[in-house]
Amino acid sequence: IPFSSAQPAPTTPAFGARPEIAGAGMTALVEWVEELAALTEPAAVHWVDGSRAENEALLRAMVDEGKLIKLNPEWRPGSYLARSHPSDVARTEARTFIASENEQDAGPTNNWIAPTEIRGILNPLFQGSMRGRTMYVVPFSMGPVGGPLSHIGVQVTDSPYAVTSIGIMTRVGADVLREIAGGAHWVKTVHSVGAPLAPGQQDVAWPCNDEKYIVHFPDTLEVWSYGSGYGGNAILAKKCFALRIASVIGRDEGWLAEHMLLIRVIDPRGKAYHVAAAFPSACGKTNLAMLRPTIPGWRVETLGDDIAWLRPGEDGRLWAINPEAGFFGVAPGTGESTNVTAVETLWGNTIFTNVALRPDGDVWWEGLTDEPPAHLTDWEGNPWTPAMGRPAAHPNSRFTVSAAQCPQIADDWDAPQGVPLDAILFGGRRATNVPLVVEATDWTHGVFMGSNISSERTAAAEGTVGELRRDPFAMLPFCGYNMADYFGHWLKVGQKLRFDRAPRVFQVNWFRKGADGRFLWPGFGDNSRVVDWIIRRIEGQVPAVDSPIGRLPRTEDLNLEGIDVPQADLDELFAIDPVSWTREADLTEEFYSTFDGRVPAALQAELAALRYRLKVA
Ligand code: GTP
Ligand code: SPV
Ligand code: MN
């Protein structure tokens, strides 16, 4: 399995011992680890080497302790089910903080707290927080180790579940330590579930704490997370590092850390295009990343499904890598008819969290099959039948699986230099107003579009599902600095691109609904029809219709062969109502006004131009 094949032979003589690697950077790391051990008082310290043997030992121990259920290897080899505490099932945005020195640098969209104040809160919480547990030291790389766009970090954690997840989601091992020893900069990330054990105290299946803090220090490039064991709260390499901290590094170094999938689209003539797309959490990134086109002759290769780092190249193009090494994907809604690629990816070597368990020792979730099995154990461990009328899997239940296991992963998915982008898509979950696809007139208009994305809330974070909220660039919960400055940074990055080589920008919406509440667009594999139009636009092969909000397709230019979308639905998919769009513009103005005059003038000008076009429409 890919988990360990790329890892060098373990350099550690004993299980979990600190490897003998010399260098000034290593000394600093050891000192940091010793300080943390003195603070958190773990029973043992384990240096993670990323080997297969180590991973298997950790998994076995968790099964023995009742923290994981081993799935039936006949159906799901090398796979496990974790059930979280019912209070710890998603990212907790209200408990997520940006602790910049200056409040203005966090901006109005983040929870700000003064670094000294939060350190005063965190210190006592972390004091003795790992008692009775093992403290794992996990060196990891985002992007191939040593790559020009890559960055490394170390996570200290008392959660073996987090360790095995990080092992799938990132590159872990001694080669990272050698980079650190050689003086490479690394980001410090500290995690405790906040559940110390008294001597002899019996552990629970999912230790966590009611009190939670996910705290980012952008000035010192550190993350401290307390009280949660779930997803982005606990796998700190992902949202905390690769987005919040990396966005700050990118601001200072001239690149972008984005909540984007990354794909290569190959047209029937064999020409390849690279597309990145930002959609909010649980709004379709993994699905588009694994697209199986329903139109003949087209192919998609997966490069990444959640995070992309974008950097202007010497050639005036925008180059992208996926810094991760695995998928932490939403289970519900993933099935043969929606995302067959994901279903195939999950054949084995997968950690499932909060899905339902079948009597035969396999897993199930809503949407995996059309008909639910007659009997299941639900995500909380209770007997379940379809008649109960509640979901068997948690709506934010997830799978953790290696990217290399995806049957359509690009051969060069972990190429250190990445791929040059041809198109960037922004999207959200919008039942009304936003058309299936609309093209920006230029980079600045594209940045304006990105800054205006709003979406109905999903189960990926705590909050009221369905409620509409602004989610600029799908980065609202993930931008590590002032979002208005972030808009400005996007404009600046655009200036470094050659105007004829910059990716073209589009807004898409797979989720528009008719008056009867049904989706107007079939979505999933049929989204390839939208991608097809986008690529024909890039090639200058089809005209577009100017509208107040951007360039729309002529419906006759969409390839709809083999599907039946009534003309009335098509018209509704592209209907632009000036009255409700003027209301959107009002909301944008209101949103921009929360930034104390920091929103770039070029975006204010775009807003004024939009209002003018709506008025004369
Ligand atoms: P995160 O991992 O939270 O960042 O989510 P994501 O953006 O990767 O979303 P994902 O692809 O996992 O999709 C989330 C939900 O949206 C799933 O239940 C999908 O079935 C559903 N979905 C994805 N694409 C489409 C589509 O084209 N149409 C419709 N109607 N639903 C979709
Ligand atoms: C998201 O919420 O966008 C995710 C899941 O991808 S988590 O890693 O928990 O942030
Ligand atoms: Mn995500």
TrEMBL record:
Domain annotation Phosphoenolpyruvate carboxykinase GTP-utilising N-terminal: ranges: 31-251
Catalyzed reactions: oxaloacetate + GTP = phosphoenolpyruvate + GDP + CO2
Residues engaged in binding substrate: 91, 230-232, 281, 396-398
Cofactor: binding comment: Binds 1 Mn(2+) ion per subunit.
Residues reported to bind GTP: 282-287, 398, 429, 524-527
Entry cofactors: Mn(2+)
Residue runs in coiled coils: none
Name of one Pfam family that matches: PEPCK_GTP
Keywords (A to Z) from UniProt: Cytoplasm, Decarboxylase, Gluconeogenesis, GTP-binding, Lyase, Manganese, Metal-binding, Nucleotide-binding
HAMAP family hit by this protein: PEPCK_GTP (MF_00452)
PANTHER family in the record: PHOSPHOENOLPYRUVATE CARBOXYKINASE, PHOSPHOENOLPYRUVATE CARBOXYKINASE [GTP]-RELATED
Role, per record: Catalyzes the conversion of oxaloacetate (OAA) to phosphoenolpyruvate (PEP), the rate-limiting step in the metabolic pathway that produces glucose from lactate and other precursors derived from the citric acid cycle.
Subunit field text: Monomer.
Protein name as annotated: Phosphoenolpyruvate carboxykinase [GTP]
